[in-house]
Amino acid sequence: MLFKNSIDKYSSMLDEYGIPHKKSVIFDLLIKQADLFLQIGAPGFEYKRSDRSANVRFIGALLPANAKGSGKAWFDERLNRYKKVILVTQGTVEPDMNKLIIPTLEAFKGTDVLVIAATGGHDTSTLKERFPDENLIIEDYLSFDAVMPFVQVYVTNGGYGGVMLAIKHKLPVVAAGIHEGKSEICVRIGYFNYGINLNTQLPESQHIKAAVQEVLKNSLYRNNVSRLAAELNNYDSNSLCAEYIQELTAAI
Predict the structure, then answer these.
(1) pLDDT (tens digit, 9 = 90+) per residue, 98-127?
(2) Are residues 76 and 137 in contact, defined by beta-carbon separation less than 8 angstroms?
(3) pTM
(4) What angle do CA 47, 230, 159 make, to 5 degrees?
């Protein structure tokens, strides 16, 4: 019922081009009946299963390209004064700062942990007024590639792109997300010990603080993430995409 219009539209497009298919839920149809399915990530971020389709090809993180020469490298002098730094974000879609950013700021305000919060453009000025503490940096947007080399823990609601980037930077994760498929990402983080899954989209400050402290002191998480980072970095995403698509088109 929920995706009826999408299923009907996609089915009619396939019919128009004479592509055989079995009408089904659009997400199943896209994967199961595709000749080639390019999956972002690596096997180390997936459960072992015997029934993985033969059409699946892993292609690594496949992250957005950074514009060269687009600006100076990010730096804040407070980085020189704090040994523990965490980065927190809810992405650009989630506007309710009470879900993750505010509890994280509450958890660490006035402590020896430097918190860098990227709001995605939501309530930034209000948050800066509410949290004027010296150890809190609150910005609309930040280049995560520029920031992550200074960070020890990534706190997120489970956005896949941000998690992939954090892993490439060998950052263990504290995750708290449920909707938009984020629960699947968060569960993997906990299952494989790439960090801690808080199993909620409304974590309390004390739970965030305890999870961050555990990740900081327990080398298990960083060691596991470092192994996955090495696996991801073996993939040349752009080249692999081109090669797989060329193989497919050459066989037609």
Answers:
(1) 999 999 999 999 999 999 999 999 999 999
(2) yes
(3) 0.89
(4) 55
